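Running this now, will post back.
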Amino acid sequence: MKTYRQVALASKVLVVAVINLKEDRTIFDWTAYIDAVPGIAHTEEYIAVAKFGSKLPRQVAQILFPNLSINKWRA
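Update: finished.
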C-alpha cells in the first residue's frame, strides 16, 4: 500500500513523497520526486510527479519532509 505527501515549491513545481506502508499501516520506506506541473490542481497533479518525476537526493527530501526523515529511505 502507498500513500503520498506533497509540497508545492511554486505554483508549477511540486515535490511528492511516496511512502510505502506495511500491512499494519506503519511506514516501510519512502522516497521523493520533483517535477513541473500545470499548477491547476495539485491534488491531481501529484500522481504524475510520483510516476514520472525526478528522484530527489535524500538530503534534500529530508529538509522538505522532516517528519519522514527518521524512516528508511528507498534507494
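The first strand starts at residue 2 and ends at 10. More later if anyone needs it.
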